[in-house]
Amino acid sequence: MVKRTDATHLKQPLDTNKSIYPAGIDAHAEIKEAEEKAAKEHKRVLLVFGANWCFDCHVLDLAFQRADFVPVVAHYEVVHIDIGDDGKKNGDIAKEFQVPLEKGIPALAVVDAAGKLLVSQKNGEFENARAMTPEAILEFLNKWKPEA
Predict the structure, then answer these.
(1) Phi-psi map region of 84: left, alpha, beta (phi>0 left; psi -120 to 50 alpha)
(2) Global pTM?
(3) Domain count, the chain
């Protein structure tokens, strides 16, 4: 007889006061800097749209720090893009990278070092990060990392 268990889910943060999305940051400048660094280091840029008030954004950030995620995340320059308290901050960037924020956050987009969009989430796929399995997120990251 096979015993079935629920798939493991991501660890839930105990402290959500961490400032993942610091106020006053110029997201346009951060993206440009990330693209330049990605070009030099043969990486891609991972845009993570979210806000400090978003619990699932904290869940995803904590996942990126897991030992099994670190080598995969190392293939990206990660840029956290704050959508603000009203969900409208940096809306021009979300539109540019085809991320419909009304579908939920965190929302991800992957761009190459030249700023070309490779993929963006259109349906709030990571919105409920707390219910996702590590494997599901790693699958996404591995799919879009640059080829060796």
Answers:
(1) left
(2) 0.91
(3) 1
Q: How is residue 38 annotated by DSSP? A: H
Give the CATH number for residue 61.
3.40.30.10
Domain containing residue 50: 27-144
9's CB contacts (< 8 A; 6+ apart) are 130, 131, 132, 133
The sign of the dihedral angle between the CA atoms of 26, 71, 106, 44 is: positive
Alpha-carbon span 113 to 141, nearest angstrom: 16
pLDDT digits (tens, 9 = 90+) for 40-95: 999 999 999 999 999 999 999 999 999 999 999 999 999 999 999 999 999 999 99
Q: Is residue 123 part of a domain?
A: yes
pLDDT tens, residue by residue, 83-105? 999 999 999 999 999 999 999 99
